Amino acid sequence: MFKFKFATVLASAIAAICLLAGSAFADSGLEQKQAEIDKTVFEEKSDEIAGMGFMVTNTGVVGEYVEIGISPYEERFADYLYSLFGEDVKVVEGIAAIPYSTWEDPASTGIASSETEPAGTVEQGNGLTFILAAAAGAAVIAVCVVIFVRRAAARR
């Protein structure tokens, strides 16, 4: 009897953790936002963006926002993208991709060296969602254990 109830409590706790972890990594609409941004910057507004003097090098979901890389990075270009997509995006300096098979000396191509050299580490998501899910899972397990221990003690 004791083992059966303990197994039931443990299974309930594991199920709760799985539900919380699943919701932490669920599609929160950021992928749809990225698809909307891709369509806008690479198709609908690509000529306008090129006419302004910059290019979008990449887009991607990073943590809780969609990151848009632009080259060259200037505040007026970032402000333009913020006006299109709102504040739930982050505009960063993009790095132009240069395939190895056609790589030429940057000085001979006219590409600024900042576009061909890494700008530093890529900012990753802060992992806060995972930490919150893990903490919630730990809290569920702790509550289940406390309930189990109190019920077991009350029956003795």
> How far do the termini sit from each other?
13 Å
Strand order of the largest sheet: 1-2-3
Q: What kind of sheet is the major sheet?
A: 3 strands, mixed
- Please tell me the total number of domains: 1
Rg, Cα atoms, Å: 25 Å
Q: What percentage of the residues does DSSP assign to strands (E)?
A: 5-15%
Element order: H for helix, E for strand: HHHEEHEHHH
List low-pLDDT spans. Answer: 115-124
Averaged pLDDT = 77
What is the global morphology?
A: rod-shaped
How many strand elements? 3
Based on secondary structure, the structural category is alpha+beta
SS element count, helices: 7
Helix content: 55-70%
Give a brief rundown of this model.
The protein is built from 7 helices and 3 strands, in the order αααββαβααα. The chain is of the alpha+beta class.
Q: Topology, please?
A:
Elements: H1 2-24, H2 30-44, H3 46-52, E1 55-62, E2 65-71, H4 75-85, E3 89-93, H5 106-109, H6 113-116, H7 128-155
Parallel strand pairs: 2-3
Antiparallel strand pairs: 1-2
How does this structure look, described?
The chain is an alpha+beta fold and 156 residues long. It has one domain (2-155). 59% of the residues lie in helices and 13% in strands. The protein has 7 helices and 3 strands; from the N terminus they run H-H-H-E-E-H-E-H-H-H. It has helices at 2-24, 30-44, 46-52, 75-85, 106-109, 113-116, 128-155; strands spanning 55-62, 65-71, 89-93. The chain has a 3-stranded mixed sheet, covered by helices on one side. Helix 1 (2-24) packs antiparallel against helix 7. The longest helix is centred in the C-terminal third of the chain and has 28 residues, at 128-155. The chain is rod-shaped.
